[in-house]
Write a structure and sequence with these properties.
With 280 residues, this protein is an alpha/beta fold. It is built from 9 helices and 16 strands. The protein is globular and about 60 Å long.
Length: 280
């Protein structure tokens, strides 16, 4: 993209791609329903759709899914005046349920509109978010404080798209030694986490009860809720947590760490899982 700097110079710059994605659910009776529209960075759309449906409690297991596919033509398959039509069609993805799958249709009565900035809006109550999450088991998982401090640097090293554009959020799963397992980037922080959880969901690797989650922005209520749905016991954020995020983490036994940067962090919940150096 051609841009102009403050001193008047023209140069080419790379910007993060942001396009809408409509997620539709194909029901066993042959009908399908629009479930969500989100502004996202194209790529890993199937993971995003699966992760969203799982973390919202609409689907419970990968066996409930028959197939996930984009509707219509892919981007770039046609030329001329139909380009935009092709783009819009490829920005619709359908998750078809297996013939014997059943979902709570009452959950589908709440149509979601998700933006890259605010996450899921229009929830009728906080209780609706809490209804499907389970308390985190105390399995003895611990992570050293110095490992927590190392996570943002490891995340940044793995953020290939961020290095090119500077405009993407990231979510990543690590083990207790700080080894990175999976990372996803997106213009939306919620989408990045849905992609991570969606990948693990489709691979049959949930709950992630030995994982440490790091998110590149702040820790919101919705992100904590998604982490709880995936059974993640430790969540760390480069930014600040919200008050509701802290309350939810405490209620369900999740370790929540914020302001992980510049060699420091704050523990807001579950400090028993963080192994700190003793101060003398």
């Amino acid at each position: 993209m051609a841009v102009r700097s403050a001193d008047g110079r023209e140069f080419r710059d790379k910007v993060a791609v942001e396009e809408p994605l409509e997620i539709r659910l194909g029901l066993p009776d042959g009908t399908h329903k629009a479930v969500s529209i989100t502004m996202r960075t194209p790529g890993e759309d199937a993971e995003l759709a699966a992760g969203f449906l799982f973390t919202e409690g609409i689907i419970k297991s990968p066996e409930q899914i028959k197939q996930i596919r984009h509707c219509g033509l892919k981007i770039g398959k046609v030329k001329g005046a139909l380009d935009r039509v092709a783009s819009l069609n490829s920005n619709t993805i359908r998750v078809d349920l297996s013939d014997n799958a059943s979902v709570d249709l009452k959950k589908l009565e709440r149509h979601f509109y998700t933006t890259s900035s605010c996450g899921v809006c229009g929830k009728s109550s906080i209780d609706a978010l809490r209804s499907d999450a389970k308390p985190i088991d105390n399995n003895g998982l611990e992570i050293a404080g110095e490992v927590v401090n190392s996570l943002p640097d490891e995340l940044r090293k793995a953020q290939s798209a961020f290095e090119r554009t500077g405009g993407l959020h990231a979510s990543a799963l690590f083990d207790a030694s700080g080894e990175i397992d999976i990372i996803r980037e997106d213009v939306g922080r919620h989408n990045a986490l849905d992609k991570v959880i969606g990948k693990k969901f489709l691979d049959g690797e949930l709950p992630q009860n030995n994982a440490v989650l790091l998110v590149s922005g702040r820790a919101s209520f919705e992100l904590v809720q998604k982490g709880l749905m995936a059974g993640i016991p430790i969540m760390a954020a480069v930014g600040a947590p919200s008050s509701l995020a802290v309350e939810l983490a405490k209620e369900y036994g999740m370790t929540l760490v914020g302001f992980v940067r510049d060699g420091r962090f704050n523990i807001y919940s579950g400090d028993a899982r963080i192994r700190l150096r003793s101060h003398r």
